[in-house]
Amino acid sequence: MKFKGQHIISMTGFSRERIDHILNTAEKMEAIARGEKRSELLEGKILAVLFFEPSTRTRMSFETSILRLGGNVLNLGSVDASSISKGETLADTIRVVDGYADAVVLRHPKEGAAQLASEFSRVPILNAGDGAGHHPTQTLLDLYTIKRESYLEGLKIALAGDLKYGRTVHSLCYALSLYGAQITLISPKELCMPDEIINDIVARGAKIIEKDSIEDAIDDVDVLYMTRIQKERFPDPSEYHKVASRLKITVESLKNVKEGMKIMHPLPRVDEIDAKVDITPHACYFKQAFYGVPIRMALLGLVMGAIE
Ligand code: CP
Questions:
Q1: 16-134+292-303 has which CATH code?
Q2: Quick one: which of 145, 247, 261, 273 could link to 288 by a disulfide (CB 3.0–4.6 Å)?
Q3: Which of ligand 1's atoms lies nearest the C-alpha of 54?
């Protein structure tokens, strides 16, 4: 299974065998991710980090991952302080940065930006989110969280929130279809999952159910995956205000759920999960954010060719 030198752009082309290999590799990285074991696996390697949109988890967990493995980070920093503010194109930026680093992590507001970057880069591009497109490393850490905290095969999962613009749920659906998941979709009708994605994932083996409210689904699922309604993705802000705050969970919503039911969220949240839910055994979102470290360590080790 070849990973060395490969770009990580979306989940659509990932086989189950490749996903399982990354998840198993991440499991071996956990002690290093927690700082309990030292590693020099990526000593001398440099990871370039280019974020054209805000981020806390993806950027910092990639930085932690390379540092925990003995490598170094080269962060573009604020886009305004770079030559992009003088009009330099993404293609030219990538052609320059690939001479400074062994892999590039890119977040960009335009769908397709990571694919474009990969066409100009001599080193692996890791897509850290491209507009409403894909966020494959988030999906891999979501799958890892499900594997560690619940189970993957034949999972019953509900996805709630912004299913139209939410790149994390798009990528996750593709991946879960490989494991025969039953996926319940819950969103305001203005933000429903695009038909072409539903058709694709049904063809790949997923069972799809559509519901209007979280209450109609929550008692039957193993995982509830909440997402934020993303204000920044709405072309018209008044459309955002029509749907904001429509889907929420509170402690009361959890009265009849399965004992081991887990609530996940890629974060950041706004008001869709009440803070009182955080102290219930169902809350899994902060652990999920940590699991980004072993997953991204595994990916960096694999694409940089330090492990197979
Ligand atoms: N989940 C996620 O992508 O978070 P950030 O936007 O903080 O990176």
A1: 3.40.50.1370
A2: 145
A3: 6
